[in-house]
Design brief:
Layout: E1 4-13, H1 19-29, E2 33-39, E3 42-49, H2 51-64, E4 70-79, E5 87-89, H3 110-116, H4 160-167, E6 188-192, E7 197-198, H5 205-214, E8 219-222, E9 227-232, H6 236-246, E10 255-256, H7 260-266, E11 267-268, H8 271-278, E12 284-289, E13 302-306, H9 311-320, E14 324-328, H10 340-343, E15 352-356, E16 368-372, E17 375-380, E18 388-391, E19 400-402, E20 412-415, E21 418-421, H11 431-447, E22 454-458, H12 464-471, E23 475-479, H13 481-493, E24 499-509, E25 515-524, E26 527-534, E27 537-538, H14 544-547, H15 549-561, H16 571-574, H17 578-590, E28 596-597, H18 600-610, H19 622-630, E29 642-644, E30 647-649, H20 651-657, H21 663-682, E31 689-692, H22 699-708, E32 713-714, H23 725-733
Bound molecules: zinc ion (2 copies) and fe (iii) ion (FE).
Length: about 725
């Protein structure tokens, strides 16, 4: 039987996930001789064998690859025959443009957890225990290939025992880059409010932290992709203090809880939600709270819970036995803090800092998800999920850089048939957030050795992302915001056919310079046609109307009743002084600082204010969550609207809403009306229906729409909000 030498190239997420030891073990079990190594594109294997054994080898690779890996493709090529005398793991090779996937940060695996809590193990209580199958990745990577010297672990020289594990292909820690122990790895440090170090033995620190938390202290705890502000969720005084100090009046806090049993004591969970909580990505999952808590999540019925995902979290929660409030440490619009220097700018908020000395190279927030009708919906795509690549429906001719939107921004790069998306970066409302955004661009460029040919940006001229794109001398392509929303879903789902897109959104710049957001369009990758939209209304005070729903309500009332609105006995009118009412009437009448909008997001705000639910919001999305909480599934019926000449006029609905006595009935009928509006516009089409835009983060609305249109398509891996825009921008430019 003839022996040949084969070169096997594997692409996908094959680095930092134990792929080489897997190949080594597999090859050895088949008595194969040859080698395996990482290069900048993935994994390269050379073996000399018969075609029959090669087939078995390839089949086993595809079936048995390690848990964190995924394979995009495998190519095999016969090369000049070589004689090998063993199977070896060789040093990494740097060969041209990087395209290997960067592994994301994931949880602590069960084997490591067992060792962590085993008093006989040498890593008993070691807060940075990890292995090839778990732990920190993206947040500590400077560059590819994924080797220790390209991570912030390069500062830590391995002790003898660790280095034995690291070099033994049969060890679970073979080439596990974050490997370390009490002797050689990262260490904890405890600092007080004046930033003074508290001298303590390593092993005594977690217990001390737990004692201080139980006394009501607020901690800044350095985690994987940034710091958290943390306090005992059972201590009302501590939570109140945290809200006061962080100037965060009502925005809900997420909790970290010890285990599923504790989750079940706080929330109602389905099997799918349990699976998601326990997944290796460990996102925050929004769950229906068993009882409302006005300190943790005021006025809303859902609560964000997550399970511990680092050994340090496991140690703390194991000792605490109570949930922790865990929230990203940052100043309002700024990115999450990632260094001691940054966290110390939050002096006055924390009582203690639990620090460690492993550098956070790349910031990464916690991911947030929910399950709606069995589908995973991504709300914030970050730790565990990012950066990851998406296979595109077409190959791109040019190297693309998509700049995303301005809120919840993310960026994406694309080469060949692959896009790589950054984690959630945040709103570009401050100098430091724009700097952070630019740093994310640099990071992707550096790691992937990438230079874009075309920059793609939103049509909004005032988005920071647009300004940055136009500043470069490169070719640019501007894409309409809501078209990008739909394209993002199309790219995720690899849809090829023309679709009917429904975009219910906050705001987005329209082709006519008005602020769109209640859009119906037919589209494919070549372009879109706006087929219908919600009738424009005026946003009194422009951007101020986004924070003050009462301005939208007032404007809607002026549309319905003109000056007569001023004498209505309704909550939205009472939310203004007489002088204000007269001023705004003049502004409305003469369109002074009153941009036109078709936004369903603003319509939610307006309805919330009309019903006296909220007039001024303390955080984005508050009105929608409050409406969700008031929805009553027992209420049937809809309000009136008209649909003529591609315009949906909701004035009849507004007139009926203000006469409705029960808030809950009004809210429920409002939701049903939105579904009815979709039905009315969609009825003449036979195209697949695709949903996009931030308003579809509203669980009640999404459930009702999916009830009515079970085949409606919504993204699962990328957020319906502006976090999904970058992928849509990439998709818009594939054919160009
Ligand atoms: Zn592990
Ligand atoms: Zn060690
Ligand atoms: Fe949007």
């Amino acid at each position: 039987m003839g022996h040949f030498t084969y070169k096997i190239e594997i692409r996908g997420r094959v680095q930092g996930v134990g792929f080489r030891p897997f190949i080594y073990t597999l090859a050895t079990s088949l008595n194969l001789y040859g080698s395996v190594l990482n290069n900048t594109q993935g994994v390269l294997i050379s073996v000399t064998t018969t075609p029959e054994i090669l087939d078995i080898f390839l089949e086993k690779i595809e079936k048995e690859f390690p848990p964190l890996a995924f394979i995009d493709n495998i190519t095999t090529q016969k090369i000049k025959t070589e004689k090998f005398t063993s199977f070896e793991i060789l040093d990494s090779e740097v060969n041209g443009e990087s395209s290997a996937d960067i592994p994301p940060d994931i949880y602590t695996c069960t084997e490591c957890e067992k060792e962590l809590l085993d008093s006989k193990n040498r890593r008993f209580n070691y807060p940075f225990i990890s292995c090839t199958h778990c732990g920190v990745r993206y947040s500590m990577i400077y560059d590819l290939p994924y080797d220790r010297e390209n991570t912030s672990m390069k500062e830590f020289e391995m002790c003898k025992q660790c280095s034995q594990e690291y070099t033994n292909p049969l060890s679970r820690r073979y080439h596990a880059q974050p490997i370390g122990c009490f002797d050689c790895g990262p260490k904890l440090q405890l600092l007080d409010a004046t930033n003074k170090y508290t001298p303590l033995q390593q092993k005594d620190i977690p217990q001390r932290v737990v004692d201080l938390l139980l006394e009501g202290n607020i901690f800044a705890i350095k985690g994987v992709g940034g710091y958290h502000l943390v306090c005992d969720a059972g201590n009302d005084e501590a939570i109140k203090r945290l809200r006061e100090r962080k100037k965060r009046a009502k925005k809900p806090f997420a909790l970290m809880v010890k285990d599923i049993k504790m989750v079940k004591s706080l929330a109602k969970i389905s099997e799918a939600e349990e699976k998601l909580l326990l997944s290796k990505e460990r996102p925050i999952v929004l769950l229906q709270a068993l009882c409302k808590n006005d300190l943790i999540a005021p006025n809303i019925s859902y609560i964000g819970l997550m399970l511990p995902y680092t050994p340090l979290h496991i140690l703390l929660l194991d000792k605490l036995k109570t949930p922790l409030v865990v929230t990203s440490a940052n100043l309002s619009d700024d990115p999450i803090c990632t260094s001691l220097e940054e966290i110390q700018k939050l002096e006055g908020i924390y009582d203690y800092i639990l620090e460690h000395n492993r550098i956070i190279v790349n910031a990464c927030d916690d991911s947030v998800m929910m399950i709606v009708k069995g589908q995973e919906i991504m709300l914030r795509r970050a730790r565990g999920y990012a950066p990851t690549s998406v296979k595109l429906p077409f190959k791109t001719k040019n190297n693309l850089l998509a700049m995303g939107a301005n809120q919840k921004s993310t960026i994406a790069i694309a080469m060949d048939d692959k896009a790589i998306l950054s984690p959630h970066i945040g709103d570009l409302n401050s100098i430091s957030s724009v700097e952070h955004y630019e740093k994310n661009i640099q990071t992707l460029k550096r790691i992937y050795d990438f230079e874009p040919d075309v920059l793609i940006h939103d049509k909004h001229p005032n988005y920071e992302s647009t300004k940055l794109a136009l500043k470069t001398k490169k070719t640019t392509n501007a894409v309409q915001h809501h078209y990008a929303h739909i394209l993002g879903v199309m790219a995720e789902k690899k849809l090829q056919e023309r679709v009917f897109g429904v975009v219910f959104d906050g705001t987005g710049y329209g082709e006519d310079k008005h602020l769109w957001g209640g859009e119906f369009m037919t589209c494919d990758y070549a372009g879109y046609e706006r087929v219908a939209h919600i009738k424009y209304f005026k946003l009194l005070g422009g951007a101020k109307a986004i924070k003050e729903p009462k301005r939208v309500a007032l404007s809607l009332l002026f549309d319905c009743f003109g000056r007569e609105a001023l004498s209505l006995d309704t909550p939205a009118i009472k939310a203004f002084s007489k002088t204000e009412l007269n001023t705004y009437f003049v502004a409305w009448k003469n369109s002074l600082n009153a941009p036109l909008s078709s936004s369903v997001g603003r319509l939610f705000d307006g309805v919330a204010s009309l019903l006296g639910i909220v007039h001024i919001m303390s955080y984005e999305g508050e009105s929608g969550m409050m409406l969700e909480a008031l929805y009553d599934e027992g209420v049937k019926g809809t309000y009136s609207f008209t649909y003529k000449d591609d315009i949906i006029d909701i004035e009849p609905m507004i007139k009926e809403i203000i006469l409705q006595e029960s808030k809950s009935v009004a809210v429920s009928k409002f939701f049903h009306t939105l579904v009815e509006i979709i039905s009315a516009v969609y009825k003449d089409y036979e195209l697949p229906i695709v949903l996009g835009g931030g308003v579809f983060q509203n669980r009640v609305l999404l459930e009702l729409v999916l009830d009515k249109f079970p085949n409606a398509i919504i993204g699962n891996r990328f957020p319906p909000n502006d976090g999904g825009i970058a992928l849509g921008q990439i998709a818009s430019t594939l054919l160009k």
